[in-house]
Amino acid sequence: MYENILYEVKDHVGYLTINRPKALNALCTAVLEEIDDCLDTKIAPDNDVHVVVVTGAGRAFVAGADISEMQTKPVLEGHDYTELGHKVMDKIDNSPKVFIAAVNGFALGGGCELSMACDIRIASEKALFGQPEVGLGITPGFGGTQRLPRLVGKGMAKYMILAAKNVKADEALRIGLVQQVVPAEELMPTVEKLAKSIAAKAPIAVQQSKMAINNGMNTDLRTGCRLEIEGFQQCFASEDRVEGMSAFVEKRDPVFQNK
Ligand code: HXC
């Protein structure tokens, strides 16, 4: 049904693949609209899927927003384009589900931003990260000026954005932009294993932890700790908390019901 993306569910994990390999998966308007639709109509309503893997078909993760499309846009459409990208990134970032970016190659501009909207980034040794926008006469426009400094610190973010310095996978790991680097052939098995391990945990606990981290990072420590207390209590009132603790005491694996 989609022309530029693929979406499938395997073993309770969603796999969203940007599938425009001829243009290195560049995020044209149609791709962004399809991702947006998939998030709303397939991913959000699916209560069986708690973890979604985002990756790219072919040799790129995503090489950025579509430069050819942007080149022809009238001035007034610039705003709509950045708004659309932000809407998609915000939906991923604020989703109660966990998104893992499996970064298989170029993650430049909007591609780096898409990976940063995800909760966890696992990279192939072939991955390359960067925000080259200033060389095109624009700022990053899908959240890069905000999410990159939150992940790697202000100095490194300015180094990457102001000087348009790309970083290879090993450097991305060193600065904390990615959480693990693996050989290319091990990328999807590694991500699949990680996705399944998260999906096996109590969904409410994973969701509340994600929200406490996200919302807490946008506020002061005291307010963030109050958010944690509220999230903790919601988990404490859940059936899955009873199951998780009973399973530990009874020396068996828990069976969570998302209740
Ligand atoms: C449109 C792109 C593209 C992009 C690659 N292609 N990146 N098309 N937008 N971002 C297309 C090329 O035009 C080419 O099409 C095909 O993909 C293969 O790319 P090549 O350049 O031939 O491959 P290679 O020599 O291996 O170089 C790979 C690359 C280079 C280093 C990734 O393609 C590149 O620099 N791409 C642009 C990266 C970039 O600047 N990204 C940021 C975009 S701005 P043809 O038809 O010739 O085969 C951005 C802003 C976000 O993301 C916010 C907006 C609001």
UniProtKB/TrEMBL annotation:
EC number of this enzyme: 4.2.1.150
GO biological process: fatty acid beta-oxidation
UniProt catalytic activity: a short-chain (3S)-3-hydroxyacyl-CoA = a short-chain (2E)-enoyl-CoA + H2O
Top EC class for this record: lyase
Claim: Transport is one of the keywords in the record: no
Pathway participation: Lipid metabolism; butanoate metabolism
Key words, A-Z: Lyase
Lyase as UniProt keyword: yes
InterPro entries registered for this protein in UniProt: ClpP/crotonase-like_dom_sf, Enoyl-CoA_hyd/isom_CS, Enoyl-CoA_hydra/iso, Enoyl-CoA_hydra_C
Gene Ontology molecular functions: 3-hydroxyacyl-CoA dehydratase activity
Protein family membership: Belongs to the enoyl-CoA hydratase/isomerase family.
PANTHER family on file: ENOYL-COA HYDRATASE, MITOCHONDRIAL, ENOYL-COA HYDRATASE-RELATED
Subunit structure: Homotetramer.
Name of the protein: short-chain-enoyl-CoA hydratase
